[in-house]
Structure of PEP-CTERM sorting domain-containing protein:
Amino acid sequence: MPKFNFLATMIGTVLGLGVVAAMPNAHAASLIPNREGEIKTNLGCLNSTTCIDTTSLGYTVTSLDFDGAGGYGASRLFVDDRATSNTYVGSALKVSFGTKDAGTNTGVNEFWLRPVAVTESGKLPENGQLEVGRFLFDFTEVMSEITLDFFDVEDIGTGVLLINNSPVGSSMLSAGKNNGIQTLTFYNVKSFEVQLGNAYSSKFPKYGDGVNLSGIKGTPKAVPEAGTTLGLGALAVAGMFGLRQRKKSVLAG
């Protein structure tokens, strides 16, 4: 009986080691593209040469109408570094970013996701400088942790609305300081829906409250590979039996 208990313990141990060995090395990595351009959404892109497809980063983005019928339609989403001026031209829209914005100025040499509000009639409020939009980020695999940085939240209206298609509580950000950064972190995320900015701000009734998003860092949830796990466990057990057999042969000799 003691030998049986010892063997069972060893099998459990080596199988556990097999699981650990089979786990991929997961580290949080930025999911923000490191070049300027327009994020490809369900709206497509204004220009194919500056279009950024995020599927290679493990997620897709859908732009959503945030105020229903009338007013605003789905927003465009760009990656912007304030160090440079950029112009994006499509068949019906022309979006220009300078090195200084009317109200929301991120750090130089930093990449931020910058929404551009568009009216349902196809007009650009503030010449494209109203950073307001609602977006659905859908990941190809579950992320064990997601961190979001919000830039320049000065009025209520910005925050995460849904995680994995379910409402979340206490995830709307409070009004903060000009050009300040607020952070939210979530766990076991397959998708999230986020509202950036407030087009109907009572604090800024003329222009609204524009907000940028960055700092998206995700860690894929580690899943053990069953075949590798069992293979490592079996090899370890076999090695243990071989070691015990060799010891018996030496003693017999």
